[in-house]
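User: Good morning. I'm curious how 1,6-di-O-phosphono-alpha-D-glucopyranose would be positioned relative to this chain. Could you predict the structure with it bound?
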Amino acid sequence: NIQGVIFDLDGVLTDTAELHYLAWQKLADEEGIPFNRVANEALRGVSRRASLMLIIGHRPYSEEQIQEMMERKNRYYVELLKNMTSKDLLPGAIALLDELRQAGIKIGIGSASKNARTVIERLGIADKVDAIADGYSVQQPKPAPDLFLYAAKQLGIEPAQSVVVEDAAAGVEAALAAGMWAVGIGPVERVGAAHVVLPSLAGVKWADIRSQLQK
Ligand code: G16
Ligand code: MG
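Assistant: Good morning! Here's the predicted structure, ligand included:
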């Protein structure tokens, strides 16, 4: 029986993917590295370091330069977060969070981002979540199950009682590796490995998800 739902943040509750993209694009432009929106798709749900590695490819940067570029990108991103408000919640997100709360289902956030707490504050949903696992919580990034296992532990529930809602292939993989139920948000080509696939959270009712998972 399902006791809790763990939401990915970027791409599920809000579209920070666009802000991450703008910050990476600025950095890539400054470095003279070719980058665009299409290339950015591969960075969805991917950690900051792994994202930078995908952008720089085989270019010979030192560890010091890599650190500096990660910090620079983060400064651009944090600057963009200052304009974020509850208007940036994706359609259906608040309704589902409120419905889960009413139903007595625990709510967690499982985000790879070190800025997750800032984003949660800016979105105004801090009082709606029971636990946050973020980029500081565990060592191994998604697709390792660690982040979601950490979130479930914080919620005091077992993996088999947990549902993960994810927009990234690596996130769905992490949920399955954790032994949790997975709901994929987005195209089947990306999140088709999940138990249930939905185009977005718009109009989504908890009862629908639950019945689809139990069939
Ligand atoms: C998010 C984003 C990724 C980002 C990562 C790390 O993951 O989807 O694009 O690179 O967090 O973020 P930061 O640089 O802020 O630490 P998630 O798991 O919330 O989708
Ligand atoms: Mg995501």
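Residues 63-81 form the longest helix (19 residues). The chain is about 45% helix and 10% strand.
Let me know if you'd like a different ligand tried.
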